[in-house]
């Protein structure tokens, strides 16, 4: 039954052959930048990426979950400069990530006037080299150069930042039921692959020197719209783009993947077009054809009521406390879940996941704590409440070990039961379409439809019961008020509930939602 809605033949390389093996897909998602804020775009990539990975797994692919940390580049040089001025060991000891973020914010603030001056000069068509060769600019670039040269002291400091961040994030992802197979990152791109990209592009006449930098003029080699990009800067440092192109070669070597999917905001559409185009310039159409950028509209926020949200853990904490508030208010009302810390935590996470998965990729949304924890409407908590309600009904029944063969299903030949059956029959189509279109929101929308229909079934039994507590098994199975309903009919209904719960389980698993313990 766990298999319902899955189709493991889709991921096979040659499904009809007897020796068919699963194809390998790398799903790269989340990918935050060290020491800077975990943005709404990172959040959406995290949720969506996890769902897309799960959908592939359900369809028989061999899935590798990859986190490509922004752990290299000049911003890390800036952080190190900040560490020199504001870093304090005790504070780092106590709360590594919090302290790093604080340091980064302070140094960014100091750096801002220089950055603005440089931007102004560029806008006015002046040379920015003078501005950027002094002050914090120079310190930042010098430190990054030391990192790129592999200088032990610089690398050691950088590694402390990186390790602390990974430890922090691994914990936060676990709260979302997400586990990465690899924390890779921009720092991990091999010098050999970088060399290979540059020499190949040079051989093909695509790589040009321009004012001390090395560039690719996409507009010259097509497609025009991609413009000109720097691959290696004036100071000799590699760019985000160059590292991404080289990372494709590294991953091909390491995994020989059949497909690689980048789950990244639509803001980076041009960037990924360039990555894929550059791989083509290198004469590697075979590899370029395996690359796919799954984009999405940015989530807005955080909204003011979310307060100062900086890191993934803060977003999760905020959601849990929003749910906690609502549980406190609803105390005693039939929301089907107990007001415990564990429940609030599961509900908070579910609320965030559901809020994101409510929207198609192309639709942006704003973080909203107000409705996040509500038990009405299309929210995570209301999905959990429906699930718990259904479970309570099943647990209270005398179904026990009754054999399926003994069930008389003719009792289910009318609405709302038939409607539930009809919906359940659609489930495999839903997962298939969600998989093909990369729209996990379809699965969530389906689960809401199913729970709505189930509510119609459950409703009659719960009529007149609004304290949600101390229900007897008799009340729960509806025997009390259903004059016309025979024990056989009730048994058939409970069997249906059990099957429906399995469908809910399967759908929730795709979304990384665990049922709240009741
Ligand atoms: N760290 C990047 C950012 O925050 C996202 C990385 C996306 N993946 C990639 N291969 N470039 O913008």
Query: Which sheet architecture does the biggest sheet show?
Result: 5 strands, parallel
Overall mean pLDDT: 89
SS-derived structural category: alpha/beta
Distance between the termini: 22 Å
Number of helices: 20
Which compounds are bound in this model?
arginine
Roughly what percent helix?
A: 55-70%
Shape: globular
Q: Give the strand tally.
A: 8
Structure report:
This protein has 518 residues and is an alpha/beta fold. The chain has 20 helices and eight strands. It has helices spanning 40-58, 74-86, 89-94, 96-123, 129-132, 135-148, 152-175, 191-203, 218-221, 240-255, 269-281, 285-288, 312-330, 341-357, 369-372, 380-395, 417-437, 441-462, 473-477, 487-510; strands at 24-28, 62-69, 182-185, 207-210, 213-217, 228-232, 259-263, 291-294. The strands form two sheets. The protein has a five-stranded parallel beta sheet. It has a three-stranded antiparallel beta sheet with strand order 4-5-6. Helix 16 (380-395) runs antiparallel to helix 20 (487-510), helix 17 packs antiparallel against helix 18 and helix 18 packs antiparallel against helix 20. The radius of gyration is 27 Å and the shape is globular. 39% of the residues are buried. The model is unreliable at 464-483 (pLDDT under 50). Arginine binds at residues 28, 31, 33, 68, 70, 244, 262, 264. Residues 459-485 are annotated as: Disordered. Its EC number is 6.1.1.19. GO terms for molecular function: arginine-tRNA ligase activity; ATP binding. It is an enzyme of class 6 (ligase). Residues 459-469 have a biased composition (Acidic residues).
